[in-house]
Amino acid sequence: MSSLLQFFSEEVDFKFSDEKMIREWIIQCISQEKQNTGVINIIFCTDEYLLDLNQRFLHRDTLTDVIAFDYRENKDEISGDIFISIERAEENALHFIQSFEFEVFRLIIHGILHLLSYSDKTSADQSIMTGKEDYYLSLLPH
Fold first, then answer.
1. Could you tell me the residue ranges of all domains in the chain?
2. How far is residue 2's CA from residue 10's CA, in Å, rounded to a whole number?
3. What is the pLDDT of residues 8-62, one digit of tens each?
4. CA of 114: how far to CAs of 39, 49, 57, 67, 98, in Å?
5. Share of the chain above pLDDT 70, in %
6. Residue 45 belongs to what H/E stretch?
7. Cα separation of 51 and 34, whole Å?
8. Is the dihedral of CA 13, 118, 131, 125 positive or negative?
9. How far, in Å, CA of 3 to CA of 38, rounded?
10. Is the pTM of this model over 0.70?
11. Class of 4-138 per CATH?
């Protein structure tokens, strides 16, 4: 399967000014994890849209900022859909006192790490994931 990384919007008007740079960054992060990029769709959406997915597929009745669905067909190539709530990203950015764009990047890499089989269920897992997020965010071109 060849590499295909695409961005979409559902019920929101959101688009990066430099999708090529973001794609290259994501592929670099995946490569550093010794994996290949398969087909990855990153879908920006509303809270309501993501809540519906959370309820229907994960049976959770809570707002969330990112959900990743893993469609991997072989162990060395990641594929899946990452849904990101733009409304949660805006709120998180205010809460963590950082730029909206940086928060969107954090949510993207968080979803990618889930596709790479990282978990955030325990505090130890969260600590590992946060460390990886911070490292990969440091690789973003300035």
1. 4-138
2. 25
3. 999 999 999 899 999 999 999 999 999 999 999 999 999 999 999 999 998 999 9
4. 15, 20, 16, 9, 23
5. 99
6. strand 36-45
7. 32
8. positive
9. 4
10. yes
11. alpha beta
